[in-house]
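I hope you will forgive my troubling you with a question about protein structure. The record follows directly beneath this note:
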Amino acid sequence: MFPFPLQALDRFLLQYNLGQVLLLVFVLALLAALAQRSRKVLSIQVMTFGLLFAIVPSIDGPGYYLYLGLGLLVVAPLLFTTANR
């Protein structure tokens, strides 16, 4: 019962690298954070994904995810300091 869905998920994920999967999760989490309407939650989330993009995909995948992570790490403190709630 369980092997079939896991095998289908595995075949689907083998087509993508870790950076692409993290980017998809980041976009979905960004939409969820925008629904909260809290800029502090958004900035903490951006900082967390910036760290993930800077550390994890640099091991496996193209190098431009590293630059995305560094950019997010620069933007996140600016979002946090300008947040009202």
Observations:
- Residues 17-81 form one domain.
- The mean pLDDT is 83.
- The first helix runs from residue 3 to 13.
- Residues 54 and 70 are 6 Å apart (CA to CA).
